[in-house]
Amino acid sequence: MNRDEKQKKAEELKAELERARSVILSSFEGLHVAEDTQLRRKVAQTGAKYKVVKNSLIERAAPGTSVEPIAKKLRGTTSVASTESDPVNLAKVLIAYAKDNPAFVFKAGVVEGRVVSLAELSLIATLPPLESLHSKVLFLINAPAQRVASALAGVARQLAVVVQQGIKENKFQQAT
Predict the structure, then answer these.
(1) Structural domain range at position 54
(2) Are residues 125 and 85 in the same domain?
(3) Do 8 and 82 share a domain, yes or no?
(4) Is the pLDDT of residue 175 over 60?
(5) For 57-93, what is each residue's pLDDT tens digit?
């Protein structure tokens, strides 16, 4: 590649890193092509991207992005997994894949602009999917309104019972 092509590649990667909510750098040294292809498919199913990138290209593209703190002093082969959507799904796929393939090793990661360790990434992978969290929040927002409605309905129901009981026992006078 000549200098202009390298610059263009760095700009494309920088744009991708700026859009990403989550970026995980890893080493894939020792993986076979079939294993790497399997990982690419699993990552693609989550809507994320996975590609092998030269360390120097990452270092050129990182300034001004959330990846800048982790892009320094990279060694060996490096792959970049990134997503613009739910970081939990990407973390789940990568953690599960790393358990099955010890040759796949995490280097560093950034989730929602925050540098994360392997332990933190494992915790993120245990979170429920974003849709599930949204439904739980909506339930919590809706719960107080349901309680108020049932309390008001209870008062009206009790009043109706008292009035009906008074009618049965002829406790009310008829108007003349």
Answers:
(1) 3-130
(2) yes
(3) yes
(4) no
(5) 888 888 888 888 888 878 888 889 998 888 888 888 9
Q: What share of the chain in percent tops pLDDT 90?
A: 3
* Cα dihedral 63/64/66/68 (nearest 10): 20
Rounded CA separation 105/16 (Å) = 22
- Residues 20 and 108: their CA atoms lie apart, in Å, by 15
- Alpha-carbon distance 44 to 15, whole Å? 19
83 and 147 co-located in one domain: no
Per-residue model confidence as pLDDT tens digits over 99-140? 888 888 888 888 888 888 888 888 888 888 777 878 888 888
Angle between helices 33-45 and 87-100 (to 10 degrees): 160
Overall number of domains in the chain: 2
pLDDT computed for residue 33 by the predictor = 87
Give the chain's radius of gyration (CA, Å).
Answer: 29
Same domain as 56, residue 120: yes
Measured between alpha carbons, how far is 110 from 24 in angstroms, rounded to an integer? 6
Predicted TM-score of the model (pTM): 0.68
In this structure, the answer to whether residues 145 and 86 fall within a common structural domain is no
| 126 lies in the same domain as 143 | no
Say whether both 103 and 158 belong to one domain.
Answer: no
User: How does DSSP assign 38-86, residue by residue?
Assistant: HHHHHHHHTT-EEEE--HHHHHHH-TTSTTGGGSTT--S--EEEEESS-
